[in-house]
């Protein structure tokens, strides 16, 4: 875990139907992130993790997204977590919001039984404190702005949540809508232990869309 502290974690993911949706393509994206100086990677599914692991030994935060309601929930069961660990994940991210259909906080202890640390993905300060008290090794602000009660999703990252968690002694990973180096610096200044950036690095569609919006035609 110390390898991640103070570093940039790059989320290398592509949803179904995306032109980059292929495990080997994801692995190449991960390799590019490594060459660019990433401290770690965040990867969805055992298949993609296995492909990434063949190319790098950089720390991998594994997760498995499952559609539930209006959004994807993150690694809601122990069976999914075990598959991620077997594929080579060094840490496993789990959804610890009230919207997850899984066992919630109890999943932390179960995953620790696999010998793997846990990243608890939350949307509020209360959820983050509960995750930390329940034994999560790190707490991610990943789901802030994405739960049903927080829609519509804000444009900017939730730096307030980062600071609120950090000020209470929580080891917090800032994640969610980080798009540029200014925001990354702000997250570390707020007390983040590490910062995750995803689509702003690894999704050419969203990158192109953002820049094309500035063009006159």
UniProtKB/TrEMBL annotation:
Taxonomic superkingdom: Bacteria
GO molecular function, one term: N-acylglucosamine-6-phosphate 2-epimerase activity
The reaction(s) this protein catalyses: an N-acyl-D-glucosamine 6-phosphate = an N-acyl-D-mannosamine 6-phosphate
Record flagged with keyword Cell membrane: no
Assigned EC number: 5.1.3.9
GO biological process, one term: N-acetylmannosamine catabolic process
The keyword Metal-binding appears for this protein: no
Gene3D superfamilies for the chain: Aldolase class I
InterPro entries hit by this protein: Aldolase_TIM, NanE, RibuloseP-bd_barrel
GO cellular component: cytosol
Pathway the protein takes part in: Amino-sugar metabolism; N-acetylneuraminate degradation; D-fructose 6-phosphate from N-acetylneuraminate: step 3/5
Class of enzymatic activity (EC top level): isomerase
Record keywords: Carbohydrate metabolism, Isomerase
SUPFAM superfamilies the record matches: Ribulose-phoshate binding barrel
Functional description taken from the UniProt entry: Converts N-acetylmannosamine-6-phosphate (ManNAc-6-P) to N-acetylglucosamine-6-phosphate (GlcNAc-6-P).
Family: Belongs to the NanE family.
Official protein name in the record: N-acylglucosamine-6-phosphate 2-epimerase
């Amino acid at each position: 875990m110390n390898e991640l502290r103070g570093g940039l974690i790059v989320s290398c993911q592509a949803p179904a139907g995306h032109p980059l949706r292929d495990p080997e393509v994801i692995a190449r994206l991960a390799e590019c992130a490594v060459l660019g100086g990433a401290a770690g990677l965040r990867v969805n599914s055992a298949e993609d993790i296995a492909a990434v692991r063949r190319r790098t030994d950089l720390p991998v935060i594994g997760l498995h997204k499952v559609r539930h309601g209006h959004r994807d929930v993150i690694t809601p069961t122990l069976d999914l977590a075990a598959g991620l660990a077997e594929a080579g994940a060094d840490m496993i991210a789990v959804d610890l919001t009230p919207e997850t259909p899984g066992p919630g906080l109890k999943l932390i202890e179960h995953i620790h039984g696999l010998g793997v640390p846990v990243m608890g993905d939350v949307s509020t300060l209360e959820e983050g404190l509960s995750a930390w008290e329940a034994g999560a090794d790190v707490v991610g602000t990943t789901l802030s702005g994405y739960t049903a009660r927080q829609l519509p999703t804000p444009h900017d990252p939730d730096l307030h949540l980062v600071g609120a968690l950090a000020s209470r002694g929580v080891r917090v990973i800032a994640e969610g809508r980080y798009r540029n180096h200014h925001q990354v610096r702000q997250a570390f200044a707020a007390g983040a232990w590490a910062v995750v950036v995803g689509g702003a690095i690894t999704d050419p569609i969203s990158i192109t869309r953002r820049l094309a919006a500035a063009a006159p035609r």
